[in-house]
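Good day; I would like, with your permission, to put a structural problem before you. A protein sequence and the structure tokens that stand for its backbone fold form the material at issue. The record follows directly beneath this note:
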Amino acid sequence: MRAPQWSPLEGSSLSVALEVLRRGPLSRSELARRLGLSRGSLTRLARPLLESGLLVESGGPEASGSRPLDVAVDQHRFVGVKVTADAVHAVATDLRARTLSGAEVPLAGTSPREVVDAVGDLVDLLRADAAGAPVAAVGVGVGGLVEGLGRVRSARYLRWEDVDLGSLLGERTGLPVVVDNDVLSLARAEQWFGAARGCDSFAVLTIGEGIGYALVVHDRVVAGPDAGIGLLGHVPLAASGPTCPLGHVGCADALLTVDAVEARASVALRRPVPYAEVLRLASAGDPAAGRVVEDSARALGRLVALVANTTMPEKVVLSGDGVALAEVGRPALDAAVAADRDPRARAVDVDVQAVGFAEWARGAAVTAIQTFVLGPGMHHS
């Protein structure tokens, strides 16, 4: 059976469907209250959505005798993909981005053809496991500058310049494919289905190989032409200190990336020290590792305060492969945030979200879901 389609929903009908998708299941009275609709208007708008199978009734009856409304989450599948320098990670989700299955394959190389073949093989594998539901779209997240939800203008760790990954993968899979910066995609997942659901404005900061940043204002992801370059990595956080590869002294990249923390700890301890060991030694009371972690956590706190002071979000979500730094160094982080804030300002809601590659892939799936639901070029909603 063909899955119910969202297009060409618009206006109040789209608002009803989106509210149920993001917040549901919802009673009719709650849905009408949220959207500022009369009960009669909601009934009129919901009827064709129910008849098309896009919305369904779920659970027990309300006091009015009708049942809560939900979306037909099981009738669509989406595949989200995260591409790293050495592997491809993929998940299959339902319409509400709940992960149903996952897989990963190593990359023999990072040429566009090798990446397309690896992603295509994973999509084929997850499609075969989709339990009869059609895969509606594929989302791919890469660390870099992406244009038009398809063309990778620059991806440093893949050593790519100007690769039309969306078209290549569309030809390989025969499915609609959207490609975007991985941090923007992660922000969309937090916005619709994650830690920031219900927030009108929030920021996402990620630390790992680089420094990632995404901002949501008035429930819209800010996705300008410079998103994906990693501009926040060049912000100075210490008057003196280590130097980043671009020659900046004491910037976020020089203090917060996994490589930067490992390099400082290895100098202090006079031997190579992996990131996880640096954090473990700091937790165990090692003075050298403890100093490195404390300095880096303090710098992260300054970065959080800078974002909070300039964009005034309801919440700052910290994530990324190196986010354990925020957990081990939380006292220094919190102290630095407070020190750089006006004492009259409210406390910053800092939400640490430890994620693995599967969660990055789920973020890419949410970008695909948004494209499917809203149409191309409408990720601002």
Notes: The chain has three domains: 11-73, 76-189+358-374, 198-352.
